[in-house]
Amino acid sequence: MGRIWQAGLARLTNPLLWLGLALLFIGAPLQAKETAVRLGGVNYVSAEEFGARFGLKAHAAKSGRALTLKSIWTTLEIEADSRECSVNGLRVFLGNAPRLHRGRLLISRVDAEKLFTPVLLAGLDEKNVPALRTIVIDPGHGGRDPGKENHRLHVNEKTMVLDTAMRLQRVLESLGYRVILTRTDDRHLGEDKTADLLKRNLIAKQAGADLFISLHYNAVGSNAQRVTGVEVYTLTPQHQYSTADPEHDDDKGAAELNAGNAFDHWNMLIGYHVHRRMIEELGASDRGLKRARWAVLRHAECPGILIEAGFLSNDAETRKIMTPAYRQKIAEAIAHGVQAYGAVLAGVMKQRAGQ
Ligand SMILES: [Zn+2]
Fold first, then answer.
1. Which candidate, 158, 166, 278, 301, has a CA 20 to 30 Å from the CA of 80?
2. For the sheet containing 42-46, what is the strand order?
């Protein structure tokens, strides 16, 4: 369905049509008569009323515990007490699980505004539209920090991400973007881990980055031969909790406003488009679009994502990652996601120029 929205965007060159679309969707701020409920310190809105604002029809299932919100462009599937939802068939993790309250399914206001609205409005209601010319790719780890390792197959993350980053650089450059890597060889970027991570953001800032993409490969300790697939992370919005993951979670920072939160709307859009292309093109299992307060995303001064492109703890997936052909496929899928995000930005600019 997302693809139809994309194609629709590309075809909507008539400014009048755009204006009509914009007027249809904007006016999105919560209406006074709409349901607003505070439960457990979290503000919720009615999922059905939220959907109706965007022309989505609600279809209930499981005695009202699950809801499908559907238009010709978008299908959202949510369920009470589950942080996992589906956006156009993709796994996406909400900041708060929807709640069933007095017969209505509620979604948190932050999820409504920071997760669903970007997909539904694609920037149409945003004041500042980012440029997309300079892209900084950040191959994680390096030097004395190998990242994740598969000792059985003698391969580590720092080597695989550097090669993937260089492939992504070539693909993006061929599409006309200016591309800078945070490292182009096997090195650590600071005295310690904190300095190393800050340096990555500094390089992006000095390059005047419009987009920051941090590249990683993943690993799990248990169920290693069963867990495979792609995860894409965006920065957790203020006041929300990161997607549950004991190793990476940073819930202590929930109340904190980070620099990267200025781009919540665009973070979600780039995350959504890259995640979508990676799942579609790689045939990899969908581990979901998730939120975490990774340092490189917290300090980013432009929209950014962190990609975990596969599991080095899984031997079958590692063997794939070890082939240049699969790493090239990963690079191309990411680049196609960047292009789709670029098409959204161009669409918004075109709409504004026509006003
Ligand atoms: Zn890593």
1. 278
2. 36-39, 42-46, 104-108, 99-101
Quickly list H helices, the chain.
Answer: 2-11, 15-25, 47-53, 109-111, 117-121, 157-174, 193-207, 264-282, 295-298, 315-321, 324-353
- Kindly report the length of the chain: 355
Q: How far is residue 318's CA from residue 312's CA, in Å, rounded to a whole number? A: 5
- Residue pair 330/255 in contact by the 8 Å Cβ criterion: no
CA distances from 91 to 143, 151, 202, 249 (A): 34, 31, 32, 19
Query: So where are the chain's domains?
Result: 2-125, 134-351
Q: pLDDT (tens digit, 9 = 90+) per residue, 29-65?
A: 555 567 789 998 899 999 999 999 999 999 999 988 9
Q: Which CATH architecture has domain 134-351?
A: 3-Layer(aba) Sandwich (3.40)
C-beta separation of 167 from 121 below 8 A: no
Residue 144's φ and ψ, nearest 5 degrees, are -75, -10
Longest CA–CA span in the chain (Å) reads 61
For residue 307, how far is its CA from the centre of ligand 1 (angstroms)? 9
pTM beyond cutoff 0.85: yes
What is the Å distance from ligand 1's center to 139 Cα?
9
Q: What is the CA radius of gyration of the chain?
A: 20
For residue 79, the CA-to-ligand 1 centroid distance in Å is 32
User: What tens digit of pLDDT does each residue of 235-266 get?
Assistant: 999 988 898 754 455 567 788 899 999 999 99
- Distance (angstroms) between ligand 1 centre and the Cα of 161 equals 9
Q: Does the CA dihedral 164-214-241-122 come out positive or negative?
A: negative
Enumerate residues 6+ apart whose C-beta is below 8 A from 34. Answer: 45, 46, 49
Fold annotation for 2-125: Copper Amine Oxidase; Chain A, domain 1 (3.30.457)
